[in-house]
Design brief:
The chain is α/β, with parallel strands linked by helices and about 210 residues long. The chain has helices at about 15-25, 30-35, 45-55, 65-75, 75-100, 120-130, 140-150, 155-165, 170-175, 185-205, and strands at about 1-5, 25-30, 105-110, 130-135, 175-180. A 5-stranded parallel beta sheet has the order 2-3-1-4-5, with helices on both faces.
Amino acid sequence: MYVVAITGGIGSGKTTVANQFAALGIEVVDADLIAREVVAPGTPALAAITSHFGPEILTEQGLLDRRVLRERIFSDQAAKSWLNALLHPIIRSEMLRQCAAVSSPYCLLVVPLLVENRLTELADRVLVMADRVLVIDVDEATQIERTCHRDGVSREQAQAILASQASRSERLAMADDVLDNQSGTTETIRARILALHETYLAFASQQAPQV
């Protein structure tokens, strides 16, 4: 399976772009969704997390309380390492399983924080899985404007979120391909997506085993 990893900062339009690839018949695997699914109620991972951190790590509904978990691992490197050691292999295994099950010519693997997590084992494994990395690119002013409008947060909050993520230059340094998702009309951007789609179809065809 030919895998294209797609990433970008907050407000860059990753989901919109991924949806347009999906409309072209390309199956999408979402790493964020998988990360939530593997800790859903009843999963072995959630049971292990609860045993390790205690029942206070759960909400009243029995869901993983992500806010509490973030607070527990924020200043505890040992706890963070334990959590990563538990979850990263599970997440990677599920990503591989879903990518292998794809029937479209290539697979789009959405990994929002690929660059931010570039020093983690999971990011290394994703990069090994991916044949190409596509970065969705917009300038910081556009990111802030879109985030404020979409999430209803203040400009200061949007700037704080942006500051916690990788810089635009760091993200672009990891890219095999860059999609300008800012300049031009909607049709112009769609044409760029179509051009990338045709490129990936050609790459996937070259990689496919000959019968």
